Amino acid sequence: MTTIFVTSSGTDIGKTYVSAMLIRQLRAKGLPVHALKPVVSGVNEKTFPESDPAALLAALGEQVSFDNIDLLSRWVFEPALSPDMAAARAGVEIDFAELVNHCKAHQNLYDPLVIEGVGGLLVPLNTEKTVLDWMMALNGPGFVPLLVVGSYLGTISHTLTTLDVMRRHKLAPRAIIVSESLSNPVSLEETVEVMSRFTGATPLVAMPRDGEVDIAGLVI
Fold first, then answer.
1. Are 143 and 169 in contact (CB under 8 A)?
2. Of 8, 51, 139, 199, which is most buried by a Cβ count within 10 Å?
3. Burial of 170 (0-12, 13-18, 19+ CB in 10 A)
4. Sign of the alpha-carbon dihedral angle for 131, 136, 33, 14
C-alpha cells in the first residue's frame, strides 16, 4: 500500500497544486487513487470553490461541491488560521489519535492514497502535536513523503531546515518539488542549482509556475 504525504516548508507555497497534479497523473496511469485533506482552514460554503478541497475533488473527477467536502476533509474551519488556532475559535481541539486513525483507515482502503498536509512541517495541529508528529505516526512501509517548497527569497534556508528535520525523524522526502513563487529575485533554475549543493541525494524538481512535471514517476 502506497501513501504519499505532501508536506511543505510553509503555507501558500503550492502543496495543493502539486497534490492535484499528482492525483491527475496517477489517474492517467489507471491507478485507483484516492486523496485526503483531513484538516483545512479558511473554508466555508462561500470560499469553497477556490479552496484546496475543491481543487482535489476536481483532480479526482468528483463533483466539486461543498456538500462533497467530507469525501476529503473531516476537520473544516472557517478562520484562515493555523489548525490549532482555527479549532480554538470554533471551541474544539483536533483529536490527534482520531486524525491518525482516520488516515490509517483510508490507508487500508486505498492504494495509492495521497494525503495533503496543512501549512508547513511544524504547524501545530493542537496544543501538543504538529504536522511532523502526524507524519511520524503514519510512517511505515509504503509511506512516501514529498516536500514542496517555493523559490522566494529565503526559501533555501527554509528548505534545508525542513529537510534536516525530516531526515532526523526518518522521513526523508522522496523528492523536493521547487514550485516557482510569484516573487523571485533570481531564476527558478538558479535557486534549484544552489539548493542542490546542500540536499545530497534527494532529487530536486523545478516546477515553473502553472507548469507540469512528472511527479507520479517519482513516487510510484
1. no
2. 8
3. exposed
4. positive
Rounded to an integer, what is the distance from CA 205 to the centroid of its chain? 16
- Sequential pLDDT tens for the chain (220 residues): 899 999 999 999 999 999 999 999 999 999 999 999 999 999 999 999 999 999 999 999 999 999 999 999 999 999 999 999 999 999 999 999 999 999 999 999 999 999 999 999 999 999 999 999 999 999 999 999 999 999 999 999 999 999 999 999 999 999 999 999 998 889 999 999 999 999 999 999 999 988 999 999 999 8
DSSP alpha helices (H): ranges in the chain? 15-28, 52-60, 83-89, 96-107, 131-138, 155-168, 188-196, 216-219
CA 195 – CA 159 distance, rounded (Å): 8
For 216, counting Cβ atoms within 10 Å of its Cβ (0-12 exposed, 13-18 middle, 19+ buried), the class is buried
> What is the set of active-site residues?
37
Nine cell digits for residue 54: 475543491
Grid cell, residue 160, equals 534545508
Set of cell numbers at residue 178: 521547487
